[in-house]
Amino acid sequence: MAKDHSNFFNDVYEVVRLIPSGRATNYGAIANYLGTKGSARMVGWAMNAAHGMADVPAHRVVNRAGVLTGKSHFETPTIMQERLEAEGVEVVNDKIKNFDKIFWDPNTELAL
DNA sequence: TGGCTGACTTTCG
DNA sequence: ACGAAAGCCAGCC
Known about the structure:
Elements (H helix, E strand, L loop, with lengths): L6 H11 L7 E2 H8 L5 H11 L10 E2 L16 H9 L3 E2 L2 E2 L2 H4 L3 H4 L3
Parallel strand pairs: 1-2
Antiparallel strand pairs: 3-4
Helix pairs in contact: 1-3, 2-3
The protein binds a DNA duplex (13 and 13 nucleotides) through helix 2, helix 3 and strand 2.
């Protein structure tokens, strides 16, 4: 399982893994951090492969509005919200409450 | 080799 | 303020 096979996917996994508990980020931030800012979709795609990895908390990755867009891709559409609430994140209507304060930007937190 | 798809984002109407 | 369309890159057929 060499990480050099797909740098893009691996990078996404690492960034998502670096997301601290009780925090969440969005696809655009990760894409921007990786340099592929134009392809925020690809981040989601990478997560599609990442959802098979337990080490990748995909539930901490949401869209720029803080909505749990990818919840449907989990084992169950409720897993994402359940896990976020378990982390201490308030979720209402499949949307993260106070997303503005729990938002975790790799470009800022990792201090590029 | 060429073209479609995709867990997004931004902008024009 | 809401709706629809374009743009982006990388994997997959």
